[in-house]
Amino acid sequence: MSRYPVCRHCIAAPEPLEAEFFCASCRTPFQNAFPLDAEGRCALCRSGLRGFDAAYSFAAYDGVLRQLIHLYKYGRIKTLAGPLSDLLARAMPLDERFDAIVPVPLHWLRRWKRGFNQSELLARALGRRTGIPVARALQRSQATRAQAGLSNHARRQNVTRAFRARAVDGKRILLIDDVMTTGSTAAACGRALKQAGAARVAVLTVARADRRFLAGFDAGLNDSKSGESRENGQ
């Protein structure tokens, strides 16, 4: 009997994100090559606004996968960490070596309300699969507003100085989260880890917002905002 209320067809439904044009660093998909420089980097990566060195995601934050993540995160079906971590493993870069897996932390109050940190469960499942040690090297030192529904600028401001990191001198870090939208949270975590001595920070998420399809992206943000509101009792 399944350990989660999802049929095997839905578990197998998510397909890898496909695009003809990607940023070489953050893997953001684009409709054409116009936003990319001669080295294949997007404007944010060129400007140094990314706090991480690379980003990888399995699929777009849409359709069945978005529903699975919502069921996991807001429905509190923790056993979905298993199949979702399988998608993380499929998205891992084969040409990189990592010294530690680090989950994006929740503030203690949000963790208490949710009952678990979804990123930590994913990180531990991936660690068991790969043999890479999991380190709780990040702490969320400030409570912040939910990112869902905020503009890009507001997202960056919301998480500025929200994270502190323990010493990770010279380590190559794989930072784990469930979804990447603008990358603001991952950037803030990456900067904290770099300040703590990390040699390289790569981000790995189950899904990412695909801005080539704005209607789907906006719907995803609205759904996420609704989930966060329910969780926070609003």
Question: What are the SSEs and their pairings?
Answer:
Elements: H1 8-11, E1 21-22, E2 29-30, H2 43-47, E3 54-60, H3 63-73, H4 81-91, E4 100-103, H5 108-114, H6 118-130, E5 138-140, H7 152-159, E6 163-165, E7 172-180, H8 184-195, E8 200-208, H9 214-231
Parallel strand pairs: 3-8, 4-7, 7-8
Antiparallel strand pairs: 1-2, 5-6
Helix pairs in contact: 4-6, 7-8
Short description:
The chain has helices spanning 8-11, 43-47, 63-73, 81-91, 108-114, 118-130, 152-159, 184-195, 214-231; strands spanning 21-22, 29-30, 54-60, 100-103, 138-140, 163-165, 172-180, 200-208. It is of the alpha/beta class. 38% of the residues are buried.
Relevant terms:
8 strands, Rossmann fold, two-stranded antiparallel ribbon, four-stranded parallel beta sheet, 38% helix, alpha/beta, 234 residues
- The total beta strand count reads 8
CATH topology: Rossmann fold
User: What sequence of helices (H) and strands (E) makes up the elements?
Assistant: HEEHEHHEHHEHEEHEH
For the record, the count of structural domains works out to: 1
Task: Estimate what percentage of residues fall within beta strands.
Answer: 15-25%
Helix content: 25-40%
Nearest-angstrom radius of gyration? 17 Å
Which outline best applies?
A: globular
